[in-house]
Amino acid sequence: MINKISFKNYKLFKEKQTIELKPITILIGKNNTGKSAVLKLMTLIEGSLNAKSSNVFELKNDDVSSGDKYKDLIYGKFGRAIELELFQEDYINDKVNVLNVGVSVDIDADLPILEEWSLKEVKDKIETKLLDFQRINKTTYFNEIDDTEYLCEFLGIYLANYFNNEKVETSGTIYKTPFFLRTDFIGSIREKSKQDYRLNPINVKSHPDGKYLYDFLIRDYLTTDKKYFAKISEWIKEKFEGWELYIDVDSEPYHIELRREKLYVNITETGMGIGQSLPLIIRANKPCNEETLIIIEEPESHLHPYAHAQLAQLFADSIKEDRNKKYLIETHSESFILRLRRLIVDSNHSLTKDDINLYYIDFDEENNESILKNIKIDDEGEVEWWPEDVFNESLKEVIGIRQAQNS
Predict the structure, then answer these.
(1) What is the CATH number of domain 1-182+290-406?
(2) Where in the chain is the domain with CATH 3.40.50?
(3) Is residue 162 helix, strand or coil?
(4) What's the pLDDT tens digit per position in 91-127?
(5) Prediction pTM value
């Protein structure tokens, strides 16, 4: 799966930015700096690699919207091309495959146009370019490697085929683009808990509001061993003061309840916290049959800071139990990040600094653009640097109280 992405002229990001996807990648920053744009870029790329048509991008991928018009994807909404660089490790052949694409937008027609497409491999620090296509017209591209024009058939940014423009029956050597990115996006507003549930058709993905995760929970409860349901219920019992999950499955629709000794409460009566966090708890326990980037916006929504830390640990535990899982998480929670840093130092946990990447998205007011800045974490859980005015509000308020007391 793609493990590193560079992008330029995308949304609020004018200059080239690079994000490396570790087992847990965290984005922090103030509001309206572009955190959600980075999350949605992953779904945009996935849709383009899996495209069924010639459209370079689709604005909506698995119900995740990246904008109303294609120009919304461009920095400044005019005059520039989005540049993407995708990196994927080939561990078998000990090399890195790199795909570069340049996509402009016809503002009048509101259509994305694939201007540049190149493929190279890097082995032992030596780069070898395999293809380097520059667009001439709608279907014709000039390959700068062999100075030849080709008729190219693209599905999204996937090169399906290409032919010599002068001798159509002779095709070029097909380099099957090895790139793939599989995402599962869960937004900041999860589906409100319901009084009863009916099963939907089986869905691999969760849906941005997490609604399909309840189907997974119920289906597992209907099995003999209730393997995943039991784990989820036990976790909730431990973290939520002895409450356990129960599902009334006597007949459809099904009812999800919390039980504690003789108390039975429908999930709709438990408040927003459990309803907003349950889809995330389910997703952390749901297995991934293939490598998957689980994207989560604000996991801390409607939860006490204690629960923020518990979710962070749940995600950290899950990447060790299921190597197919990776997380890309946007958070405003200091407790969430502090728990991950603590686990790096904890000798009883296998989380290491190499499992985590932490990025701060800063908005440069002078140049009117956002910048992605990496915050390195060492073996002791310490950070190399920390952005000003992030997670220091409590200290500021205490200082303010003291100043007010003395005035």
Answers:
(1) 3.40.50
(2) 1-182+290-406
(3) strand
(4) 999 999 999 999 999 988 999 999 999 999 999 999 9
(5) 0.94
